[in-house]
Structure formats: C-alpha cells, structure tokens
Amino acid sequence: MSTEFRKLLFEISEALVTDELAALKFLSLDHVPRRKLEDIQDTKAFFEVLQEKDMIRVRNLSFLKELLYRINRIDLLTAHLGSSREKMERELQVQGRAQVSAYRQLLYGIAEDLIPGDVRSVKFLLQKQLSKNKLQENASMLQVFLEMEINGLIKEDNLTMLKDILQKVRPDLKRKIDAYEGKKKENYSSEEVRYPVSVSAHPEEQGAEGEAAKQHGKIYKMKNNPHGYCLILNNHKFKNPLLNREGTLQDGEAVKKVFKWLQFDTIEYMDLEGKEIRETVKEYSKKDHRNMDCFVCFIFSHGEKDKIKGVDEECVNIEELVSCFTGTNCPSLAGKPKVFIIQACQGSRDHPSVIVQADSSGHLEVDASPLTSIPDRADILIGMSTVEDYLSFRTETGSVYIQSLCEKMELLCPQRKDLTAILTEVNNEVAKRELEGYKQMPKITSTLLKQLIFEVPQ
Fold this sequence. Notes:
Keywords: Apoptosis, Cytoplasm, Hydrolase, Nucleus, Phosphoprotein, Protease, Repeat, Thiol protease, Zymogen. By secondary structure, the chain is α/β, with parallel strands linked by helices. It folds into three domains: 3-100, Death Domain, Fas (Orthogonal Bundle), CATH 1.10.533.10; 104-184, Death Domain, Fas; 228-349 and 375-447, 3-Layer(aba) Sandwich (Rossmann fold), CATH 3.40.50. The chain is built from 18 helices and 14 strands. The chain has a six-stranded mixed β-sheet, with helices on one face. β5 and β6 form a beta hairpin. α8 packs antiparallel against α12, α14 runs parallel beside α17 (400-412) and α17 (400-412) packs across α18.
C-alpha cells in the first residue's frame, strides 16, 4: 500500500469523530460481521478492516466515498477524494452502484431525524423488549437499532415493531418505512430508495403527519457537552474615553448566563484592539471542533459600514471574521451551524443624547447591512442589531437588542423554538420599542440548512 494512500486514510480518519465512526460502522454491517465491528474503537482500525474485506483499496474508493456521503461529510469528499454531493448523487442513481443497502440507509436516516426527546420516548417504549443496560441515557439510537436487530425485533423484511413505535412517537418518520416497504413491493432497486430524506422536503403534505413533518424538519445535532464555544468579544473602554460603551458589561453577563445554561463553553474577551479581534477569531477557527455541535460568536463594539472597531479604533471587516469559519477554513465545523450576533452600528450620523447612546464612534449610525459583501455560505446565521438607516441603541442597563435576545432565549429555548424563530420574536419586540423618539429594526441573514434548536439541560 502506497505512502500516499496511507496518508489519505490517516487524514480522513483524523477528521472523523466518535459519533461519525459509529455511523460508519452501522452503515457497513452488511459487509463486515457485527462482532468484528464491535471491537473497533477508532477510525484507523475501521479502515484497516475495510481493507481486509477489500471494501476500500488504492484504485477503488467508491465505498469510502459513499460512506462519507451518507454521513454528510461532503467537506472530506471534496478535500480528499475529488468528489462532491452532486457527483455522488449522480453515481448512486446508477443501478447497482449503491453499496449501502436501502435498509441501512432507512434506519440511519430515521436515527438522524430523531431528536433527543424522541430517543428517550423510543427507549421508554422498548423497556419490556430490551434490557435496561441497553437503554441507558448515553445509548445512541443506532445502538438501540442494533440491539433490536440482535434480538430479532427488526429486520430488513419486518419493521412492524419499529413502525408501531414511530406511530406513537413520530408518525412522520413511520411514513418513511411505509415508503421503503412500498418500493420493495413494487420491485424497485435498492438504489432507487434513497435515504436519508429530509422530512421537511415535502412542505405540500397535508394533515397531521404532514404538519409533524414540517414542525420537526431537519434539525442540527446538539448532542455534545459542551455543545461548542460561545465566544464574546466585548469592547467597553476605548483608548478615547469619550467612546466608552456603558451598558455593554450587562450585555456580556446576560449572554454568559444564557449560554452557560445551554451548556456552551463560554469565554469573554474584553477591550480588544483591531489586530487582537482578528487574532482571537482566527485562533478559535483553528481549534478542534470535531466533538462540538456548533459555534457562536457575539461582538459588541462601535463600528462603521461593514466593519467592527477595536478599542484603538482600527476597523476590522465583518466579512473577514465570518470567512474564518467557512468549510474550507474551519473543516471541523463543516456542516455545523455558525452563529454571529453583532451589536454595533454601521454609519456616520450625529450622535443622539448621552442617556441613550448609539454604538458608533461618536456618531449615530446609518446601519448599512454588512452582509452585502458576504457571499452565501451554508450553515451560517448572522444577527445584526439594526438595519440600514436605523440606530442601534444601548442604555446603562445594556443594549435593547442583546437584552431582548437573552430574555427570549430563556423563555423560548425550553419550548424548543429554533434560533431563527427566536430572532424573529426579538425583531418584533425591538421594533415596538421607541427610544428618545427613535426606532430600531434588527436583521437576520441566514444560510442555515436545518433548524437550530438549543437543547435545554434536564
């Protein structure tokens, strides 16, 4: 085996986390005996077994490509294997090309769509069929499916028990099994039954099950503890004391309270110069996020159009900061949500009264949207405290936008509202306020591909 091939497998293995290895093992069960897979604890050993079974080799990486496609690691397909989502979809449409069975695709797709509360419900309903030690809190849905297979509760041609359970827990997912069984009866090839399929892909569906599908949709995984970093860059005291931002300390405390509660590793940096803002953001983009679900960054400062100011009044382009977290620049966050919340104005109008301050360098802001120069990138959400031609207000008790956001998150996260819906509530709340005769209208720009729901600790 060539050195280049070993290096390739090593680099891919280093980019995969524990949950992804478990998924790869599950999807490979039709090709590798279960007992052999049980002993595998790291991805390198898994690749060695696949080589022993002649499932991957120097001149044929089709199975490896398909596995990475199935677990949605498109970044690894692109960076290491010269493929893409579109190429894989074309290849797998050809009869006989898919090596992961429709049955495995089905179960994996269902496991991905089940949220933590659903998993707990499924385990509860299986208490009489499986032993307690197989239904522990840390047991994943794939592990539960595997135990159901071992105990003969589900198999490729008999999914009755799983359908009965899903009818009680998630009727929309039960319909996936109905579709799978229908295809088999019509003698469709397994390659034509393509799973996983987003349950939100058919918004035209009517009735209770259609509504459930729309409600649940595709949801970003939030399974790790901590879920990720919550980075706060908070500029309070500027080198020019006239620019000091009173009330911003209260914003920092409010954000720390909420995101520590939501099980984020929350870090606040105070009073950074422009260069330090760049360096800090780049430092966090280079960290290993493989065992995390998400990245959140709050920036509180003065600003100009498209820019944030350091305490030395050096400007930093917002695009430059966001670009640090693209799939290319931060591969360990590829496919995971990146959230940027920015409390700063973006213009140059006269400063309002001292009691209610605007976040600018001595002027009221015309808050031109900084997003005009940021290209669409998947899985990124940017919340701005204000839109073009409006002001961003801050009082001695904190900014209107950030305080409203923290209050809404404390109220709505326990109701499993996704972040976009929460920010929309914030927009509505802030828009109603009137401060010294002025109005403020926040803005949301999102390329998120799924719902982002923050799990509230039990």
